[in-house]
C-alpha cells in the first residue's frame, strides 16, 4: 500500500513538473532547469555519500568535465541534444574512473581531501588551458540544442526545460535503480562495515570504483543539462562552491534518500539565487543560516525525519 502511494505521489510530481511551461512564465522554467541540474548532481553525490558512505568534496569535477565536453561538442561537432549528452556522460564517467583508481584506495578524511584536491586541480586546469576552455572567460556562444539532427535550434524556454526534465528523470531512474540492485545492497554493506564486506569475499576496491564511475557519469549528465540551459560554462562550474552546494543539498535533504537530495537542491538554489538576490546578494549568508537551522532542528534532513513523531513531540512539549 505504501509503495503504491509513493508511486502515485511520484507520478503527480512528474506531471506537475511537466506542466510548468504551460502555466508559469519562462523565468520559472529557467529557474527550475537550474534546480533540476543541481538536483541531479546532488542525487549522484548521494549515491556516494548516503548509499555508499563515500563523502566527496570534489563532485564538481565530473560535473564540470561533462559541462565543458557538452559545450565543446555542441559548438564544434553537433548540437543535436542526445550527442552532447551522451559524450558528457562518457566524459564524466571516464574522468571518475581514471581518478577513482587512486582515490577509492583511501577512505575517511583522506578520501575527502583527495577528492577536494583533484577537483581543485581540474579547476586550475580549466583556468589555465585557455585554448580549450577559454580560460577564466569560459566558453560562450554555445549553440542551443536541436531536437532533430540538423534541425532548428530550440529557442523556447519551455521546450528546453522539457529536455532538461527528461534527462533528470532518466538520470534519477539510473541512480534509483542502482541503489536497489544487488550492487546497491553491496554498497550499503560497504557503507556500514567495509571490513566485513572484505571478509565475505567482496572486492571493496571494485565496488567503490564502480559506484564512483557511475556517480561521475550521472554528474556529467547534470553538466550537460547545465550547458543546455545556460549555454555558457566557466571554471567556476568546477569550483569548490559547486561541490559544497551539492553536498549541502544532500545534508539538508537527508542522506540516503534520493528524493531528499532533490528537495535539498531546490531549497539551496532558490535560497541562494532567488531569495538571496532580493536581499542584496546575501544568499550565501542566508544559506548558512538555513544549514545551521536544519542541522539543529532536523539532524537527519527533511526526507529522513519522522514528521509525525516530530509534530507529536512538539505538541506534547507545548501542552506540558
Count the DSSP helices.
Answer: 15
Task: Give Rg in angstroms.
Answer: 20 Å
- Please describe the biggest sheet, giving its number of strands, its sense, and whether it closes into a barrel: none
What best-fitting shape do the alpha-carbon axes yield? globular
Total strand count, please? 0
Proportion of helical residues: over 70%
**Ends apart, CA distance between termini:** 36 Å
Mean pLDDT: 88
Uncertain ranges? none
Strand content: under 5%
Q: Sketch the topology as an H/E string, one letter per element.
A: HHHHHHHHHHHHHHH
Helix- and strand-based class? mainly alpha
Give your account of this protein's structure.
With 320 residues, this protein is mainly α. Helices cover 74% and strands 0% of the residues. The chain is built from 15 helices and no strands. It has helices spanning 2-18, 20-23, 26-51, 60-76, 82-103, 109-128, 130-133, 157-180, 182-192, 194-199, 204-230, 240-253, 258-275, 283-297, 307-319. Helix 3 crosses helix 12, helix 4 packs across helix 11 and helix 12 (240-253) packs across helix 13. The longest helix has 27 residues, at 204-230. 45% of the residues are buried. The mean pLDDT is 88.
Amino acid at each position: 500500500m505504501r509503495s503504491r502511494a509513493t508511486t502515485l505521489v511520484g507520478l503527480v510530481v512528474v506531471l506537475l513538473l511537466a506542466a510548468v511551461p504551460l502555466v508559469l512564465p519562462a523565468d520559472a522554467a529557467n529557474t527550475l532547469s537550474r534546480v533540476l541540474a543541481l538536483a541531479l548532481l546532488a542525487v549522484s553525490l548521494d549515491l556516494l555519500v548516503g548509499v555508499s558512505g563515500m563523502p566527496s568534496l570534489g563532485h564538481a569535477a565530473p560535473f564540470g568535465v561533462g559541462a565543458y565536453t557538452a559545450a565543446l561538442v555542441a559548438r564544434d561537432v553537433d548540437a543535436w541534444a542526445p550527442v552532447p549528452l551522451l559524450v558528457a556522460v562518457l566524459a564524466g564517467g571516464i574522468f571518475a574512473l581514471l581518478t577513482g583508481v587512486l582515490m577509492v584506495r583511501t577512505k575517511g578524511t583522506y578520501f575527502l581531501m583527495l577528492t577536494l584536491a583533484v577537483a581543485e586541480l581540474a579547476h586550475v586546469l580549466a583556468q589555465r588551458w585557455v585554448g580549450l576552455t577559454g580560460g577564466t572567460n569560459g566558453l560562450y556562444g554555445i549553440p542551443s540544442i536541436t531536437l532533430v539532427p540538423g534541425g532548428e535550434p530550440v529557442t523556447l524556454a519551455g521546450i528546453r526545460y522539457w529536455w532538461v526534465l527528461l534527462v533528470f528523470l532518466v538520470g534519477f531512474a539510473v541512480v534509483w535503480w542502482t541503489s536497489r540492485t544487488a550492487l546497491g545492497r553491496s554498497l550499503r554493506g560497504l557503507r556500514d562495515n567495509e571490513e566485513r564486506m572484505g571478509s565475505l569475499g567482496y572486492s571493496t576496491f571494485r565496488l567503490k570504483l564502480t559506484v564512483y564511475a557511475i556517480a561521475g557519469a550521472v554528474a556529467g549528465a547534470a553538466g550537460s543539462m547545465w550547458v543546455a540551459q545556460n549555454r555558457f560554462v566557466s571554471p567556476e562550474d568546477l569550483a569548490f562552491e559547486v561541490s559544497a552546494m551539492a553536498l549541502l543539498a544532500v545534508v539538508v535533504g537527508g542522506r540516503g534518500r534520493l528524493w531528499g537530495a532533490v528537495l535539498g537542491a531546490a531549497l539551496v538554489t532558490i535560497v541562494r539565487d532567488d531569495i538571496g538576490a532580493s536581499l542584496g546578494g546575501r544568499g550565501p549568508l542566508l544559506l548558512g543560516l538555513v544549514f545551521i537551522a536544519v542541522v539543529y532542528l532536523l539532524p537527519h534532513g527533511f526526507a529522513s525525519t519522522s514528521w509525525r513523531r516530530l509534530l507529536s513531540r512538539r505538541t506534547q512539549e507545548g501542552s506540558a
